[in-house]
Amino acid sequence: MQLGSCFLDSLTVTSFFGNAEMRGVFNDRQLMQSWLDVEAALARAQASLGIIPSAAAQAITDSARLDRLDTAVLAADAADTVHPLVPLVRALTAACPGDAGRYVHLGATTQDVMDTGFVLRARAGLDIVTRQVDELVRILRRLALRHRTTPMPARTHGQQALPTTFGLRCAVWQSELQRHRARLAQMRERLLVTSMGGAAGTMAGYGPQAFALERAVAAELDLGVADTPWHATSDRFAECLMVLGLVAASAEKLAREIYFLGRTEVGEAYEPQRATQVGSSTMPHKRNPIRCEAVIAAAGTLRAQVPLALQTMVAQDDRDMGVGMTLWKLLPECFILIGGALERLVEVFGDLGVNPDRMRSNLDITGGLVLSEAVMLRLAGPLGREQAHHLVMRIVRDSLEQNRPFADVLRADPQVAAALPGTELAGLLDPLSYVGHAAALVDRALLNSESP
């Protein structure tokens, strides 16, 4: 039973809904180590101000390593105390040599340590997310340049609309991710601050040097200083999770695009497949887009957490652990979900299968109907826009109802024949002649965006 559980966890969670690096940040050991890091930083900051002996601060720092503590004792003590931090404080106190333990957690309250620890882990998680987004942007920029003039059908309302280029598609995607890069960077300044409010947000327990101590702790941890205590204001974490939700929405969009483009009937782009990869247990021909499907599932799950993140802002009085505890669950889950989703997308787009021939052939399946706008606008000169629109709409309807090529019905119409020479009409019905400024838009998008 244990073997089966481990196998299933590896298969369904780690492989599809997370990645090893992000799980290394958001596991129980790193959770406790982040709290120990805060306790050590507090001790060093107090020593720098002469509040506690320097030797005691050094002893606390040396002892504040989870591998030096008995985790079995910690687990038993947690069960007895029904408290998240007290067992760790007790264990650290006991691990310190001499009388150094008497200075552990001096003046602090549980939420100061826990929230600051969560900030430290969020910073590590954001570093990973930012790096992943950067890599995805680089990949999409390369694809945009490579396929700058590769024609394909643009689709609106689920139907072919006009010719475009795959490069422009990729440029649009990378531009959206560039905006997420900016959001991630802007949000860091607000999120990455210490929590030093003390028991009720007045900092009373930190003594007369409270503000200096706050600055010293922040410097030790390379964090900012919050203007006010924030035990009951979770907007920083809520914003973080909302930004992750935005990234997740874009991730799902990209995954769904490749999912659609890889359909048998479309076949324009597809998820890479390893030689050993199995698409179906019964149908050997299947090349299922399993990575894209995992991204879709992970992104949808993450976005569903955003309302809960907002709910954590509705805290009562000066501290409300009813909403605070929600973050204990949301932060790790959301970071793990986005870390896995972005890793899958980097794999997909890094070796994306692109079929320019199929893109080009798909432009021809409507028999020229995707060029109806080009014909209509050309006829607008001699006929007027409204009359030209009605004329082309009628010809389109006749083409569809009579199952005749659009070009043939156009050539047979006397009004069209009188307004357009046959050679000019042939040029108008060439999809490559009507991709507009797609290539220039790619150039502008890549020129105006920052290369990570």
TrEMBL record:
GO MF terms held by the record: lyase activity
Cross-referenced Pfam families: ADSL_C, Lyase_1
Spans through the membrane: none
Domain Adenylosuccinate lyase C-terminal span(s) in chain numbering: 367-446
Keyword DNA-binding: no
Keywords annotated in UniProt: Lyase
Stored NCBIfam families: purB
Record-given protein name: Adenylosuccinate lyase
